[in-house]
């Protein structure tokens, strides 16, 4: 105990992770050697993670969960690692993405920005770099965020792709992001997306006004067993919901939104008009 180094979990996410490893280990009366034997990592590695001298990895996090009995729990080390790895991803979102990759139907509603699954790499990069300039994330987290989005998009390019229904507030296509070249290419991507056989793209015009049922972005997934789950987020919180008592009313509201939105043909015509107005 003489060489026990003080920890400062408030200093960084890595430090908080390391402090939790130490507290979980000590709560069981284990030494670093004891935990090393149970994870097949060296005690030197354990020490380096606990003191934030070495960042945790996914295999290490999973080994911790097995050794400490937290695998599959809401507060598992793997989930904490994923939150750390992906920077500012909100609670519930990494889990949502796992379900998204096997969904048979995906319904999206977005305000202000193009939905992630429809973003070009250049558009996504501009948004990530903007977050860096605001000090919200690090440059490394920005790069990981763009890479993570690309993996999400790739996961949907499977043999039997899901049906994807998207309703965008008109602000999504009117708000300039990244300059004319980036925005023009992004709008062209939307036109290509709408032409696919497994997609429906609609714009909810400003005229919908108070009839718009959602004031925040909404994601709804229909899974292979036909169960439905929802993910919704605010500026600071994300929530994955599987309870039919709350999810089914959201599905009903989404259908009402689709009824208020423009048809796909009219939506694409508006997008083309905006794109042609982009030098």
SSE blueprint:
Layout (H helix, E strand, L loop, with lengths): L12 H15 L4 H8 L3 H8 L7 H11 L8 H9 L7 H8 L4 E6 L10 H13 L5 H17 L7 E7 H5 L4 H16 L4 E6 L13 E5 L5 E6 L4 E4 L2 H17 L3 H13 L3
Parallel strand pairs: 1-2, 2-3
Antiparallel strand pairs: 1-4, 4-5, 5-6
Helical proportion?
A: 40-55%
Instruction: Give the helix/strand class.
Output: alpha/beta
Q: What fraction of residues sit in β-strands?
A: 5-15%
| Widest sheet, order of strands | 3-2-1-4-5-6
The beta-strand count equals: 6
Write down the overall mean pLDDT: 89
H/E order of the elements? HHHHHHEHHEHHEEEEHH
Report on the biggest sheet.
Answer: 6 strands, mixed
CATH level-1 class of the largest domain: Alpha Beta
Overall number of structural domains: 2
**Shape designation:** elongated
Q: Helix segment count?
A: 12
Q: Which consecutive residue ranges, at least 5 long each, have pLDDT under 50?
A: none
- Computed CA radius of gyration, to the nearest angstrom: 22 Å
CATH architecture of the largest domain: 2-Layer Sandwich
Separation of the first and last Cα atoms: 67 Å
The CATH topology label of the largest domain is Endonuclease, Chain A
Describe the overall structure.
The protein has about 280 residues and is an alpha/beta fold. The protein has 2 domains: about 10-85, Orthogonal Bundle (434 Repressor (Amino-terminal Domain)), CATH 1.10.260; about 95-275, Endonuclease, Chain A (2-Layer Sandwich). The protein is about 50% helix and about 10% strand. The protein is built from 12 helices and 6 strands. It has helices at about 15-25, 30-40, 45-50, 60-70, 75-85, 95-100, 120-135, 140-155, 170-175, 180-195, 245-260, 265-275; strands spanning about 105-110, 165-170, 200-205, 220, 230-235, 240. Strands 3-2-1-4-5-6 form a 6-stranded mixed beta sheet, sandwiched between helices. A hairpin with a 5-residue loop joins strand 4 and strand 5. The chain is elongated. The termini are far apart. The mean pLDDT is about 90.
